Amino acid sequence: MNAHSRPPAGVSRTAVMIARARADEQARPDRLFADPLAGVLADAAGDVSDLDFVRELADTHFVLRTRYFDDFCLAAGAARCTQVVVLAAGLDTRAYRLPWPRPTRLFEVDLPALVSFKDRVLAGERVRPACERVTVPADLRGDWPAALLAAGFDRTRPTAWLLEGVMMFLSDADNDRLLARISSLSAPGSRIAIEHFNQEFRRLPQMNQVHERFRSLDALANSWLADPVRWLARNGWYATVAAPTRLAGEHGRPVPGITDPELVGPARIWLASAVRPRLAITLPQKRRLPAIRSVTKLVHRTY
Ligand SMILES: C[S@@+](CC[C@H](N)C(=O)[O-])C[C@H]1O[C@@H](n2cnc3c(N)ncnc32)[C@H](O)[C@@H]1O
Questions:
Q1: Which GO terms describe its biological process (predicted)?
Q2: What is the pTM for the complete model shown?
């Protein structure tokens, strides 16, 4: 094993934990998605049983979140968003397991060591992606847009962006910069799905042990988001948030304890998705704001 194909370390070990959760779901007869490669990748990554308590705490949240992002991808494909960027892709295998419309090109961005490890394991499986898959080793705190553009990203094509399970490991400033860069690369008709949590969630007593464990992986929960709809709107995105009770109900699963408002009060893990309108909107003059608000509603309704 060379230095570039070692099992994921540090914050990238969290990706192995998520792959384990997906592998467990794959084994269920009533699974919410199929992910046959999750177990292969998790097995190759070695023991992460020290993170089992995080998985148990999150309960079915990781499974429901996977399904939420899967459905987002399917809707994006149906809307002819044939360019996809999975930021902090970890051991995500959507390139292989979802029915992408042609000619979808999917970019996976993650830290270089994680990308090398995943590529090595998948190469040994002789599996073929269901789209054109391009891996982009890059740090989301650095100049990842340059790496993405060099890898063939086309800024004129509507793009579906995934930010699943990573914003909490970045600072507020990193996340603001990340969204600004995503937005500047997003043609009209682009979409984005994100996961984050609010400050109340960050402070839940049951999360203390998780923060402690993640701190030793250099995966500190560094940021939170009070209102994902407003955060996205500031960058020109029209967002909706998925209610955890509704999401669980739709899929016939119990509401995970850490997302159940009856148990956690105002603490929230946000799952939100948004679109960037295809229609150009003329920026409002201050005195004409009321009229423009109704135009905004009109644009919102078209999605
Ligand atoms: C919890 S995992 C989520 C992986 C994947 N999105 C999923 O849901 O299965 C977090 C991922 O973020 C990646 N990550 C953390 N910080 C990063 C950074 N600064 N730049 C790029 N990737 C990063 C890790 O390597 C890891 O793969």
A1: methylation
A2: 0.91
